[in-house]
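Is glutamine placement plausible here? Inputs below.
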Amino acid sequence: MKGKLILEDGTLFEGKLFGAMKQVRGEVVFNTGMTGYQELLTDPSYVNQMVVLTYPLVGNYGFNWEDVESASPKVNALIVKELCRTPSHFRSVGQLEHYLKEHGITGIEGIDTRALTIHIREKGMMRGALVAGDEMPDQQWLTAPLPDPVASVTTTQVKTLGNPEGTRIAVLDFGIKGAIVKHLINRGMCVSLYPAQTTAKEMLAFQPSGILLSNGPGNPKDLPAAIKTVNDLLKMDIPLMGICLGHQLLNLACGGDVYKLPFGHRGGNHPVKHLETGAVTITSQNHSYAVKEECLPDCLTVTHRNLNDGTVEGIRHRQKPVFSVQYHPEASPGPADSVALFDTFQQMVEESLQKEEKPCH
Ligand SMILES: NC(=O)CC[C@H](N)C(=O)O
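Reply from A.M.:
I modeled the complex. Tokens:
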């Protein structure tokens, strides 16, 4: 069915709808990864967003049940140049189009994704809508506030996974990617996921040895309860790691500020420099917001920087075993150059446990 993408500024791209074929709206963002569409579609950080893939052929390796970051696609829509309907891969169980349709997700193909990406790069991220045939979206509907994104992806109840005898890690879950949980569990940890609204007191009842602040969708400033929880948790000197939204929340909880980037970072090839060692890693990224360096609180220091635009990619606390990164050490999709950050976290947790056991030294 003929359809079009209409941007908030009136720009129009014609194509063909696929999937659920319903009118949808969202923030239009682009991702430059060459593979990994399943991980992107199911990454809860994409709630409320319509994702443009700059790689021109999408769907060529079909769909499988292993490469997903959550149980269902979370994007509001998928925008591609060419959709492949003849997938070929030994793990494929079906077509991408059918998977999206089953889950009520609309897509559009035949879009000049290069022109669209250049437009977003020049004008900044903006709202868009997919409509069928000659329909036109209502401008008010297009720009009206989108639903609270974290509420739809945070766990609704406390969930404990992994080794029950393992080191206890309490995760403040804003829509955690499955790969992050896997990295913790593979290190023998006992992982408890807490709803985004949980207080520090409730989390501390679990007697965690470490805390992880997860990735998640939306603006971190819209989560005042979580900022308060992180602030309270920091008083306990428990080792803490933050990833993406978790990184932004750590910075806000310490009194810092964040701002919205013009078109965000989404892809699998963002070079990041570790300032303390000079090492450069190629990272997987997916974010709109970034830490405002000029407002960095005194208790924090910048550890990582993006070599494309100089933005802050990592921070650590000057006195406490607390650090966070803006990028995705779990990759999924993308290069695994930074997985060792999970080992750093594990080491911090173990060292702090040893200190507890020998209070006199
Ligand atoms: N992947 C994430 O955690 C994204 C964080 C936040 N929603 C942003 O867009 O910046």
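Short version: The chain has two domains: 2-143, 150-357.
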